[in-house]
Amino acid sequence: MTDQNKIEIFDWAKPFFDKSNRYCVAYGGRGSGKSTTIAHILLLRAYQETTVVVCAREFQSAIKYSVHLILKQEIERLGLSYAFTVTNEEIRCNHNGSIFFFKGVKNNIDSIKSIPSIDIMWIEEADILSRESWNIITPTIRKLDSQIFISFNPRNKDDCIYQEFI
Fold first, then answer.
1. 50 burial class (0-12, 13-18, 19+ CB within 10 angstroms)?
2. CA–CA separation, 97 vs 49, rounded Å?
3. Can you list the residues of the chain whose pLDDT is less than 70?
4. What pLDDT, in 10s, does the model give residues 76-119?
5. Which of 27, 35, 117, 134 is the most exposed place for a label (fewest CB within 10 A)?
6. Strand pairing of 147-152 and 99-104?
7. How much is the pTM?
8. How far is CA 62 from each of CA 2, 65, 69, rounded to the nearest angstrom?
9. Which residues contact 94 (CB under 8 A, 6 or more apart)?
C-alpha cells in the first residue's frame, strides 16, 4: 500500500469502530478531518460487510450539498473504484450490495422512514439539526445494533445536538 492509500484514523474516531456504540459523535473545528475520517470508516465497513448507510443533514436541496463528494473522492484516492459504483443518487458496493443514500431530514423524513434496515445514519453538520428532526431520527433508526454517526462544528451551546451530547 502506498502512502497515498493509507488511512489515518485519529484516536477520537476509535469509538466509531465499536458497533455497540449507538451514538458516535465527532465535533471540532473546520479542517479537523472529521468528515474524511468518518467517510473512511464507512467505506471500510461497507466494503467488509453489507451495510445500509443514510448520509443525512437537516436541509439538502441537491446531492452536491452532501458528503457524496467526500465519499467519491475517498473511493478514488484509496484505489477502491473497482469496488464501488458511484451514481448521482447513491453509492453501491459492487461485491456485497452495501449502499449509501443521501437525504435531507427536514423535508424528506418520510423517504428516510421508508428505507428498510438502516445500519448507520451519518448526520453531517448536525449543529443545525432541529430538535424536531432529532426526535424523529432517533426512533426511525431502529434496526438491532444500528448506529447514528454525528459530525459537527459547535456553534451554539443551545443547539439540539450540542445539548444532547456535549
1. middle
2. 9
3. 1-9, 31-32, 60-65
4. 999 999 999 999 889 999 999 999 999 888 777 777 777 778 99
5. 117
6. unpaired
7. 0.89
8. 34, 6, 12
9. 82, 83, 84, 85
